[in-house]
Amino acid sequence: METEKLLQELQYKAVRSSGAGGQNVNKVSSKVVLSFDLNNSKALSDEEKELIVLKLSSRLTSENILILNCDEDRSQLKNKAIVTKRFLELLKNALIIPKIRKATKIPKSVIRKRIKDKKNVSEIKSNRKKPDLG
Questions:
Q1: Better-scored residue on pLDDT, 121 or 73
Q2: Helices 46-55 and 76-94: angle between axes, nearest 10 degrees
Q3: Which secondary structure element, helix H or strand E, spans residue 10, and what is its range?
Q4: Going from the N-terminus, what domains does the chain have, and what CATH number goes with each?
Q5: 134 to each of 5, 85, 125, how far by Cα in Å?
Q6: What average pLDDT does this structure show over 114-121?
Q7: Any idea what DSSP says for residue 132?
Q8: pTM of this prediction?
Q9: CA 92 to CA 90: how far, in whole Å?
Q10: Whole-Å CA distances, 24 to 14, 15, 116
């Protein structure tokens, strides 16, 4: 993943933010919408693209475009920085390949200890019963 190339491929659009804010909301476009076209990206290899499609399938459009929004701040510049950081973090996490779990055998000593403890508990419980005088 080449971060510099990735940042050049991003497209930003400023739109009016929704919610409270009075007249400022109506006249200032502080919300930033980031879009990234995964199919046409030259910064990612084919394997990386496949991994991202697999991991982020719910966040991609049908044309494999990733869209992220940010309207946390009243400053457009800060929103742009936040959404860019969020995008890079998202890609970094999507490209992590999980380690394959190796099945391990339970040691014989652990099995023996468990059976011994079970017998001990069983004996304690049997000693609680009233004696059978028959």
A1: 121
A2: 100
A3: none
A4: 3-94 (3.30.160.20)
A5: 89, 80, 20
A6: 97
A7: -
A8: 0.69
A9: 6
A10: 15, 13, 73
